[in-house]
């Protein structure tokens, strides 16, 4: 297929409306249909492919997203890097709603998701020790600071299956582990990106305190998440556009493109 883009962005339901000359590309994949078409536009010197991971009408629940198809579509159109902004909850008091966390680790607490492209006959074990691209993380942090956005430069996101939120006991357990962020979509999305030799980046926009901060905050609600997310959408767009303009043409400062090769004996 013709190489149509070099950077991918998931969760882009509202982002591509700010670009001119959008090209909609409908995809099919070996893993079935992705969440939606790819919407391709230009930011700086980059062609960027946006895909709303829940579909353009936000109708696909987190545990039902076809993550493999979505990531395969990004790879097929030529993307070398994939940025995954997401709404997320905070597990720690100092990580407040409205803050951004540039996660450097994840914990998989999901169940039953198709989380790898490798299904034999070759036995392959891609490392997830450092799951997110160091170069993209550095650029995101620099851009956030330039824009005056409150960010946390590191953080661990625990990914739950959804669609339900955590019980108070579950959330308190996550908090006691020292993890900062909780979300329903960060896995396996970023790990699949890395398996397919692209650079993954997570940007967590904190929308609420999770239920585990018992006695200090009310339990999270979907209404609250949407309200806080919408009030910070402009900062998220500014951050994405600013950092994408800074991304160099070649990803020579990381080893993400060699993930699959290095996983084989």
Put simply, the count of helices is: 7
**Run of helices and strands:** EEEEHEEEHEEHEHEHHH
Kindly report the average pLDDT value.
90
Q: What distance lies between the first and last C-alpha atoms, to the nearest angstrom?
A: 30 Å
Instruction: Write down the Rg.
Output: 17 Å
| Major beta sheet summary | 11 strands, mixed
Report the strand count: 11
Low-confidence runs of at least 5 consecutive residues: none
Share in β-strands: 15-25%
- The helix-and-strand class reads alpha/beta
What is the percent of helical residues? Answer: 25-40%
Coarse morphology: globular
Report on this structure.
The chain is of the alpha/beta class and 265 residues long. The model has no long low-confidence stretch (mean pLDDT 90). It has seven helices and eleven strands.
Features:
265 residues; alpha/beta; eleven-stranded mixed sheet; 22% strand; globular
Task: Give the helices and strands, then pairings.
Layout: E1 7-10, E2 23-25, E3 38-43, E4 46-51, H1 67-76, E5 81-90, E6 100-101, E7 105-109, H2 134-147, E8 151-152, E9 156-160, H3 168-176, E10 181-183, H4 186-195, E11 199-209, H5 222-231, H6 233-246, H7 259-262
Parallel strand pairs: 1-4, 1-5, 5-11, 6-8, 7-9, 9-10
Antiparallel strand pairs: 2-3, 3-4, 5-10, 6-11
């Amino acid at each position: 297929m013709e190489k149509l883009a070099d950077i991918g962005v998931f969760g882009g339901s509202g982002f591509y409306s700010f670009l001119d000359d959008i090209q909609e590309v409908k995809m099919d994949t070996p893993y079935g249909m992705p969440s939606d078409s790819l919407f391709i536009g230009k930011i700086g010197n980059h062609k960027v492919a946006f895909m709303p991971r829940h579909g353009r009408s936000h109708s696909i629940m987190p545990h039902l997203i076809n993550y493999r198809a979505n990531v395969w579509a990004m790879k097929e159109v030529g993307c070398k890097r994939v940025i995954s902004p997401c709404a997320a909850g905070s597990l720690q008091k100092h990580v407040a709603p409205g803050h951004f966390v540039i996660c450097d680790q994840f914990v998989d607490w999901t169940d039953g998701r198709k989380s790898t492209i490798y299904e034999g006959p070759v036995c392959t074990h891609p490392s997830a020790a450092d799951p997110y691209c160091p170069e993209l993380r550095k650029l995101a942090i620099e851009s956030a600071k330039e824009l005056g956005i409150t960010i946390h430069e590191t953080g661990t996101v625990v990914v739950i299956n959804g669609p339900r939120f955590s019980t108070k006991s579950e959330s308190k357990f996550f908090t006691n582990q020292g993890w900062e962020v909780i979300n329903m979509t960060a896995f396996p999305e970023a790990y699949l990106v890395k398996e397919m030799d692209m650079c993954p980046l997570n940007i967590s926009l904190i929308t609420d305190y999770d239920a585990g901060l018992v006695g200090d905050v009310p339990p999270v609600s979907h209404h609250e998440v949407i309200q806080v997310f919408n009030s910070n959408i402009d900062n998220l767009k500014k951050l994405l556009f600013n950092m994408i303009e800074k991304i160099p043409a070649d990803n020579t400062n990381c080893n993400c493109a060699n993930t699959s090769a290095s996983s084989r004996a």
